Amino acid sequence: MSIGHTLLGLLESGPRHGYDLKRAFDEKFGHDKPLHYGQVYSTMSRLLKNGLVEVDGVEAGGGPERKRYAITEAGITDVQQWLATPEKPEPYLSSTLYTKVVLALLTGRDAGDLLDTQRSEHLRMMRILTDRKRKGDLADQLICDHALFHLEADLRWLELTAARLDKLAKAVTEG
Amino acid sequence: MSAPAGSLLSAQDLRKAYGPTAALDGAHFSIHAGEVVAVMGPSGSGKSTLLHCLAGIVPPDAGTITYNGRELSGMSDAERSALRRSDFGFVFQFGQLVPELSCVENVALPLRLNGAKRKEAERTALTWMERLEVDDLAKKRPGEVSGGQGQRVAVARSLVTGPRVLFADEPTGALDSLNGERVMQLLTDAARSTNAAVVLVTHEARVAAYSDREIVVRDGKSRDMEHVL
Ligand SMILES: Nc1ncnc2c1ncn2[C@@H]1O[C@H](COP(=O)(O)OP(=O)(O)OP(=O)(O)O)[C@@H](O)[C@H]1O
Ligand SMILES: [Mg+2]
After folding, report:
1. ipTM
2. Domain-by-domain residue ranges, chain A?
3. Residue A126 and residue B229: Cβ atoms within 8 Å?
4. Residue B206's CATH number
5. Tens of pLDDT, residues A87-119
6. What are φ and ψ of residue B76, in 5° steps?
7. Which of A130, B3, B46, B210 is such that its CA lies 20 to 30 A from the CA of A32?
8. In angstroms, rounded to a whole number, what is the distance separating the alpha carbons of residues A110 and A167?
9. Could you tell me the residue range of the domain that residue B215 belongs to?
10. What number does CATH give the domain A3-84?
C-alpha cells in the first residue's frame, strides 16, 4: 500500500498534526501494522519536498509530530490520480504449493497428504479471521473478508488439484 | 478401538457399501459437546453417508457408533428414532420445510411430534425464530419467504428441541455468500449457547471456517486433521 497517498488522502479533509495523522492511519488502515513515527516523518518530508503538502503551523514544544500539515493543490491532484488508477491484478502465476505438489509426485510421496495439511493450515488462518470478523465492526468485516476470499481461492485451487492428482502424476512422470 | 474419552458421539471403522460402491471404507469420527466439526472432502467421498450413519438414519455394514455411552447398533429401530427426535437436530441444503404449514408451525413441528401442546410449542418456536431473526415471518408459508430466510427457519426448527447434536449437511449450499455466512453465524452462536455439538458437512472453506476443527473424507476414509500437525 502507498503510505504517502494514504496520508495525503487523510489530509484532504483538513490539516492535521503528525501524531494525529498517524492515529487516523492506524485506526482506519493499520489494524495489524501500525505506522512507526519514523515512517510518518520520512513520508511527510518527502511529500513536503515534492510540494504535495505544506507546513500549516507548529505547536509549542517542537518535534516533528507537532508540525501541522496541509495538503496542496498538487497534493489533491496526486490523490485524485492515485484513486483513478486501477491496481494491477496479481498474476499469481508462480506457486510454491504447485511446485511442492509436483515434487511430491516426482519423488513418489503422497501429494494428497501434502494438500490436506495445507488445507488445514489455511483453515486455521481462516478461523482466526472469521472470529475477528464476528467480533469486529464493519471495517473489520470488510478487511477480513478480503483476506478470507483470497485464502478461499487458494483452497478452491487446492481442491481442484486434489481431484486431478492422478492425472497430474501421470503427466509429470511421463514428461 | 474404543470411543475417545469424553466424546459425545463417536464412530470407529465404519464401512458402508451400496452394491459395488464402498461409500465408507474405514471412517472414524468423534465430537465433544459444544464442538463444531466440519466434514470436508470431494463430491462422492462419503460425507453424507458418514453423517447419515452417525445420526442413526443409515445402518453401517460394519463398525461401531457410540452416542452418549450407548452403541447405536444395540438399539431397536424405535429406540433409534426416539433418540433422533429427542437428541438430534437436522438441517439440509433445501426442501425441508412443510409447504402447507406456516413458518412458525414448521419450527414448532418437532415439539408437536414430541407431544407438546400447540400454544406452548409455538411460543418456544417463536423464541428460536427471534434468535435467528425470522420471527417476523412466523405467519408466512415457506413458499413466501426467500431462500436465506427459509434456511434460517429450518435452522430454528433444527434447534427447537434443544438437540445435543446438530447434523448439518451443506446448510448454506443454496445460499449466496452473505446469506450463507449469516446462517453460519447464527447457527454456530445458537449451538454454542446450548452447548450442542455440530457435525457440519461442507465443501466451502469459508463455511468450514466457522468450525473448531475439520476432518477430511476421501474415498470413504476419514482423516482427522487435528492430529496431523
Ligand atoms: N442411497 C444410495 N444408493 C447407492 N449409492 C449411494 C447412495 N448414497 C450414496 N451412494 C454412493 O456412495 C458414495 C458416497 O456418497 P455420499 O453421498 O456420501 O457422498 P458425499 O461426500 O456426500 O458427496 P457430495 O459432496 O456430492 O454430497 C457415492 O459414490 C454415492 O454414489
Ligand atoms: Mg453429500
Report:
1. 0.86
2. 3-84, 96-174
3. no
4. 3.40.50.300
5. 888 888 778 999 999 999 999 999 999 999 999
6. -80, 165
7. B210
8. 14
9. 1-87+198-220
10. 1.10.10.10
